[in-house]
Structures are given as structure tokens and as C-alpha cells.
Amino acid sequence: MEFLTGNPFSTPVGQRIEHATSPTLQSEDWGLNMEICDIINETEDGAKDAVRAIKKRIVGNKNCREVMLALSVRRAGPR
């Protein structure tokens, strides 16, 4: 259960999610969101790491901007 511990923003996809959900962004960075999708699809642990990072941004967060951006990252990608 190693994946449940540690900083979810320490992985390559986690670092990009941290940046893509920064409250200092004026709007969604769709180029970065698509890069996140590519990492998820191209790496073995990408999806698991992305879920951890997005969950970290959403759960218990009172910053509506960060939550909105995290949900935008979540919506990016194929349906």
C-alpha cells in the first residue's frame, strides 16, 4: 500500500497537476491538461498518481479556485 503514502505531487503527473490547479492561474491551461492526459496514458502509474493528486486538491479544500481547476483537469481527456 505504498501508493497511499507520500506526497502525491512528487510524481511527474502530480507536479503538473499541482501547477495546473494553482489558484494563481487566470484560467484553465488546456495545453497542460492535455500533457497530463498524455502522461496518464503513457506511464504505468500515471492514472493512479493522477487520482491521488486530484483527490488531494479536492478533498477538504476550501479554495474554490483550486477545486474548480482540479475538476477541469479531471474532465480533460477522452470520454
Summarize the structure.
This protein has 79 residues and is mostly helical. The protein is built from four helices and no strands.
List keywords for this structure.
79 residues, 4 helices, globular, phosphatidylinositol binding, ENTH_VHS
What's the topology here?
Blueprint: H1 12-20, H2 30-42, H3 46-58, H4 64-75
Structure commentary:
By secondary structure, this protein is mainly α. It has a single domain, classed as Alpha Horseshoe (Serine Threonine Protein Phosphatase 5, Tetratricopeptide repeat), CATH 1.25.40.90. The chain contains 4 helices and no strands. The chain has helices spanning 12-20, 30-42, 46-58, 64-75. Helix 1 (12-20) runs parallel beside helix 3 and helix 3 (46-58) runs antiparallel to helix 4. It is globular. The model has no long low-confidence stretch (mean pLDDT 90).
